[in-house]
Write a structure and sequence with these properties.
It contains 29 helices and no strands. The chain has a domain of about 90 residues. It is mainly alpha-helical and about 475 residues long. Helix 9 packs parallel to helix 11. It comes from Rosa chinensis (China rose).
Length: about 475
């Protein structure tokens, strides 16, 4: 192997200064000598030459200018540290290679979602929404747009660049959402002055069971108008269970109350199982000329489900229909759950069947209904229908599925679903999933397997897991293992 520009080093490439090597790489970039550039890069790696960020940026630029953005992207993805030059080199490479989708096709390999997301974030760094749009198109072609990291990065890119319509479209099309994607939307709405949309997104995030961290609270409380701040405080106090403080903030300015503040207060009462106060709040809301929204009804129906308050639940459904929320996915999902917990499975199925394009939330509600009633076969059939409809299952889906298998004695099916949930769907088992498997094996009397499973778990069983194992040991008269569970 020969490197013409490096002969002056007498083959001692390790003694070459980074600046000199950078000039050589720059020469290869200008003259489009990709093969020589790749040879030099390979030689540097073989000889363990310290590739600082300065040299790596030149390699990025060389690959991009030679039309091989696939190589550039792989290198970019491997960089432990990046600076503005790195981001600019990568994005410029994409913009200069307008046929970069063919480059990936010819390479026979697509970029990882993490690398692709990094380049999308680079568009924010250099303020280039046009290149971001090109990357969005490429993501759609490569089938990466539905991936969580790519979708979140696209939504974040559009929102930070002030294009909230595009951000919202990307966000709503994401099959699953995490705290990062929700925070991007909340922050984007807040910065664009749409405070009501920001807080509605905040409430939707809470209703979806996404944990609130300091960044989300910061975004919610960054809203710079009194009404929005007041609503955020009501919601914050309600979520922490301090209903007295929430009510004090709520009463400060009656003129500024809107559906967001009412919904936050109602949801707080629901979480505290104070259903009567929640319904009084609804009456006050309507008496004050404020119309309830889908989140208001969702919270109240949830309260009826938790307390099996069928009569009040039926009355609420009539109100849901009156206000045209009966086709809302989230409201309908909670109704499915409510009727299931009240023992009216036919009503649950009927409500579900009337949902147009049910989301994973609706499917999970129906799965849960079948699971808690021990209808394992119906749960398995529902899961097959869900997957067949193109809806991607999430962690909650498998909790319901495993519960259904446990209650119906479908041990082998349950174990199969547990082991392929990560392999097929990339869902890492949590303590709840492990506990469901303990319950599955315990109910079937396979206590030795259950004990071995507990010992092999990377996490400790939660209270449900230990109680399930203890109960199974008690029923089977296994005092030794029962003592282990009790301890």
């Amino acid at each position: 192997m020969s490197f013409q520009p490096l002969r002056l080093f007498g083959g001692q490439i390790l003694k070459a200064e980074s600046a000199t090597l950078a000039q050589v790489i720059q020469t290869y970039a200008k003259t489009k000598q990709l093969n020589k550039g790749k040879e030099l890069h390979a030689h540097l790696l073989r000889t363990h030459y310290p590739l600082c960020i300065f040299l790596t940026n030149h390699l990025l630029n060389m690959y991009s200018k030679c039309g091989h953005v696939d190589y550039a992207l792989k290198l970019f993805d491997q960089m432990p540290h990046r600076n503005l030059v790195s981001w600019t080199a990568m994005v410029t490479g994409f913009s200069q290679n307008m046929r970069f989708s063919e480059s990936f096709k010819n390479a026979g390999e697509s970029p990882t979602q993490f690398a692709f997301a990094s380049v999308i974030r680079a568009c924010v760094v250099i303020g280039s929404v046009e290149i971001g749009r090109q990357l969005h198109s490429l993501a759609l072609k490569l089938g990466l747009a539905c991936e969580l990291f790519v979708g979140s990065s696209l939504a974040d890119m559009y929102s930070k660049c002030g294009f909230m319509v595009e951000a919202c479209k990307v966000f709503e099309e994401m099959p699953s959402k995490d705290a990062v994607s929700w925070t991007s939307m909340i922050d984007g709405y807040a910065k664009s002055g749409d405070f009501e949309a920001a807080l509605l997104s905040y409430q939707r995030m809470i209703n979806d069971g996404i944990g609130v961290d300091k960044y989300v609270v910061s975004s919610a409380l960054r809203l710079e108008v009194e009404v929005a701040v007041g609503n955020a405080l009501v919601d914050m106090y309600s979520k922490s269970g301090d209903m007295e403080s929430a009510l004090n903030v709520f009463r400060v300015d009656p003129e500024s109350r809107n559906i967001v503040s009412y919904s936050s207060l109602i949801n707080g009462y629901v979480e505290m199982d104070e259903i009567e106060k929640a319904f009084v709040c609804l009456l006050t809301c309507r008496g004050g000329g404020v119309e309830p929204n889908q989140f208001t009804f969702s919270s109240l129906v949830k309260a009826c489900a938790n307390q099996a308050a069928l009569e009040q639940g039926i009355q609420l459904q009539a109100q849901v229909i009156k206000f045209n929320f009966d086709r809302d996915n989230f409201v309908s999902s909670v109704l499915v759950d409510m009727y299931g917990k009240c023992g009216l499975l036919d009503h649950s199925i009927q409500v579900f069947d009337e949902i147009v394009n049910p989301t994973e939330v609706a499917w999970n509600s129906l799965l849960s209904v079948f699971a808690v009633h021990g209808l394992g076969n119906d749960a398995l059939k529902t899961f097959s229908r869900m997957v067949g409809a193109g809806v991607k299952p999430n962690a909650i889906t498998f909790i319901s599925l495993l519960t259904g298998c446990s209650h119906s004695g479908s041990v082998e099916e349950g174990l199969t679903y547990f082991y392929f949930m990560e392999k097929t769907y990339g869902i890492v088992p949590r303590a709840g999933h492990y506990s469901c498997v303990i319950d599955l094996l315990g109910r079937a009397g396979r206590l030795e397997e259950a004990e071995e499973f507990i010992n092999s778990m990377p996490v400790q069983p939660n209270a449900f897991g230990w109680c399930s194992f203890l109960g199974a040991c008690t029923i089977r008269g296994d005092k030794e293992r029962g003592k282990l569970a009790a301890e």
